[in-house]
Amino acid sequence: MTNRIRVGITGYGNLGRGVEAAIAQSPDMRLVGVFSRRDPAGVQLLDSEVPVYSIDRTEEFTDEIDVMILCGGSKSDLPEQGPYMAGLFNVVDSYDTHASIPEYYASVDQPARESGHVYLLSSGWDPGLFSINRLMGEAILPEGETYTFWGKGLSQGHSDAVRRVPGVKGGVQYTIPSETAIERVRSGQLPQLETRDKHVRECYVVLEEGADANAVRHAIVSMPAYFADYDTTVHFIDEATLKAEHGAMPHGGFVIRSGKTGQDNDQVMEFSLKLGSNPEFTASVLVAYARAVHRLARLGDIGAKTVFDVAPGLLSPKSPAQLRKELL
Ligand SMILES: NC(=O)C1=CN([C@@H]2O[C@H](COP(=O)(O)OP(=O)(O)OC[C@H]3O[C@@H](n4cnc5c(N)ncnc54)[C@H](OP(=O)(O)O)[C@@H]3O)[C@@H](O)[C@H]2O)C=CC1
Ligand SMILES: N[C@@H](C[C@H]1CC(C(=O)O)=NO1)C(=O)O
Question: Which Gene3D superfamilies would you find in this protein's record (predicted)?
């Protein structure tokens, strides 16, 4: 296929690998290269034919990449990489530190506008698809309550945050929903639930040699925007156990809007996900939004966008006429 969308990946971890695989499933796209902070010779891709470059070389590729997909961690990587890449490329990222999204939006909007690029931030499933469903629920059922539950599963954002704590060599975080809270919601009680009522968080951590376990535990459980508002447990394990027992990354969850319409009828809207691989699903969302960003850029649009700003049809490889014929 000629005129394929030329995509770059910055950051090659779980999500970067998932984006590589998702691009391979997209005949209208071509992966130009992967950019990493590590020595390119030490980064093994799924497809050995795709080149790996040092992240220091990204400026050489501004005319060769239509959309750059940032796959770094939201806690530390994207706050630095996002504003920089916004000045060079059309970008898609999965920034998911919910409490800081307004500030992050502003930090990428200015460089994107000044350089004439589109920057789609906070794509994925939450934020992302769940955000869209929370919006739809509130718009359609103005009288009601919205609830979001995740897991049991591995949160990549929280796992990334754990791995950034000084003294941590490796780690993962599982999110576990309260069955009691879910039952109260599903029974139509419209309960008022606090953050701590809905989920607990469980971390499995490998310590660096000589690290202080109590200091690491405190740094995790008190971490603002990630763990401070939850009951969090930290287990210390060895590296072999982490590799043997915590390599899979399933996840999922659901958004429910429960409310009443104008003649007092009960209505429930629900959107749910069951994910065999959190990173691969998230990556597939990013790649679909990369298609939309490329189209918006070609239409002359610029600046920061969220999933609320993107018409769903732009995500599809099908033409508007095909979509009207097949999906309406
Ligand atoms: N919005 C949403 O719904 C979702 C968002 N996310 C976001 O995705 C982010 C990335 O998650 P994930 O891919 O699991 O994070 P990883 O820890 O796997 O990767 C983060 C970065 O770390 C570096 N890295 C990866 N592996 C290694 C290694 N072996 N040695 C040294 N550095 C390494 C890579 O950068 P480099 O190549 O430059 O070294 C990579 O980009 C999360 O922080 C989260 O915020 C995830 C899921 C859902
Ligand atoms: N952003 C999340 C995606 C979902 C999962 C989640 C959680 O378990 O807290 N919150 O949002 C991730 O990084 O996995």
Answer: Dihydrodipicolinate Reductase, domain 2, NAD(P)-binding Rossmann-like Domain
